[in-house]
Amino acid sequence: MSKTISYKGKINIGEQQQIRLKTNNGKTGYRITKFQVMSTTPGVGDVEIIGQIFNKDQTGSISATVDFSDSNLMAVSYYREDPNNNSGIFQNFVIFDNTKTNQDIFITMTDAMGATVPGNYYIELEAMTLSDLETTMLTLQSLRTLSS
Description:
Blueprint: E1 2-11, E2 15-19, E3 28-39, E4 47-54, E5 73-81, E6 89-95, E7 105-111, E8 119-129, H1 132-147
Antiparallel strand pairs: 1-8, 2-7, 3-8, 4-5, 4-7, 5-6
């Protein structure tokens, strides 16, 4: 079984949103295939929105800093818009495609320019059935992450 599911929403700058993915038996795994962010008021202001997806709660540590060495980081999306300088819109995203999870994910939204306009997000996930070995491995990784 492999199917694509999507989530969309709005997050205030400097906040986090939890996407509930975990199941009772942990046999369904998810891989991020698309992650995009944009301003809720496109064309109005100078924004640099940074969206990040983690496999661990980021409460108390939400930051505009992107650290690819963070083992909890699953994806990053960057959206730049400067209508005043006619530089247009720039979007870039990086997804660590070999990362699977069977637990909840956490999306954060920040603005490198200090703007406070909320950001929209769109995520596509590939859902797949996990083997017993994969289920055990992902659950143990999750427990290790929670204890650190």
